[in-house]
Amino acid sequence: MGELLPIATPSKNGLVDKEMAPSSVENGVLKVNLISEYGTPTFLISIYSAAIIGTFILAAQTYHLKPGGKCVCIGENNISIYIDTKNIYIEPHAHINVNICIIPLSDHSGVKSVEKMEFEDLDAIKDKLTKIVPIALG
To answer: Which numeric CATH code is attached to 16-137?
Structure first.
């Protein structure tokens, strides 16, 4: 019976709503496009490669006047997080052979789409974004 249930992706509903589907990117920046400028979407983020691993919980505040948020990491902090009113950007510190996976933690996370972005494209807009520095646990 389980084989008949569709798999949820960021673009289609499946066993869970498409807003709850995990997304990943390899060797680039993960750009999360949000539906609304107002909200506090919450995500579980993992980063992994042969040499590094990290787990993060992010609560982003995307209010149009003052974007911000909080992030905690379990283990080594090996990503940078930037946000504006409609996007979250997750950049691994290592720029090769790294995978990033993001999973919404609420069914109303407001995710419109998730896409890969090149490091150079993020560098060009970083000065216009708010940086969230993860706090390490343990």
So the answer is: 2.60.40
Classify strands 87-92 and 79-83 as parallel, antiparallel or unpaired. antiparallel
How large is the C-alpha radius of gyration of the chain? 15
Write out pLDDT tens, residues 54-87: 899 998 887 767 788 899 998 888 899 999 888 9
Instruction: Give 132 or 111, the one with higher predicted confidence.
Output: 132
* Tokens coding 3: 């084989």
Contacts 24+ apart (CB under 8 A), 13-18: 16/107, 17/107
Q: At residue 117, what is the residue type? A: M
Q: Is the pTM of this model over 0.90?
A: no
Domain layout of the chain by residue ranges: 16-137
DSSP states of 70-136: EEEEES---EEEEE-SSEEEEEESS-SS-EEEEEESSTT--EEEEEEE-HHHHHTTGGGSEEEPPEE
